[in-house]
Amino acid sequence: MSLPEELERREARLAAIAEAKARIKERVAEREQAEYQEKLAARAEKERRTGKKPGGRPPAPPSGGVEAKERCSSGFSMSGGSLTSRTQSIRGSG
After folding, report:
1. Torsion sign across C-alpha atoms 11, 13, 15, 17
2. What is the 3-state secondary structure (H, E, C) of the chain?
3. Residues of the domain holding 50
4. Buried-most residue among 49, 56, 61, 78 (CB within 10 A)?
5. What is the pLDDT of residue 78?
6. Is the pTM of this model over 0.70?
7. What pLDDT, on the 0 to 100 scale, is given for residue 18?
8. pLDDT at position 28
């Protein structure tokens, strides 16, 4: 494989990785917002049912960040320099 082909292949892979990360962040944000809305709805329903304001703090709004636990469909973590599989850990070299 020639150097220009290798560089082109690398750029394509980096673009695919960036796209996958963006999809994961979008999916996490949607899920967190849905969970937050469910918690608010459950709290409002409880208040309506009992006639009293629920105790404790109201649910915190979504943080907007991707947790280190988030995984892509292949089972690998998307959290930085290391790929963490379900069965093994491989440290990235570079």
Report:
1. negative
2. CCHHHHHHHHHHHHHHHHHHHHHHHHHHHHHHHHHHHHHHHHHHHHHHHHCCCCCCCCCCCCCCCCCCCCECCCCCECCCCEEECCCCEEECCC
3. 3-91
4. 78
5. 52
6. no
7. 96
8. 94
Q: How many residues does the chain have?
A: 94
pLDDT at 65: 65
> Does residue 83 contact residue 90 with C-beta atoms inside 8 Å?
yes
How high is the pLDDT of residue 63? 81
Which of 66, 64, 85, 60 has the alpha carbon at shortest distance from 74? 85
> What distance in Å separates the CA atoms of residue 48 and residue 42, rounded to the nearest whole number?
10
Question: How far is it, in rounded angstroms, from Cα 25 to Cα 79?
Answer: 12
The list of the chain residues with pLDDT below 50 reads 93-94
Instruction: Please name the residues in contact with 20: beta carbons below 8 A apart, sequence gap of 6 or more.
Output: 72, 78
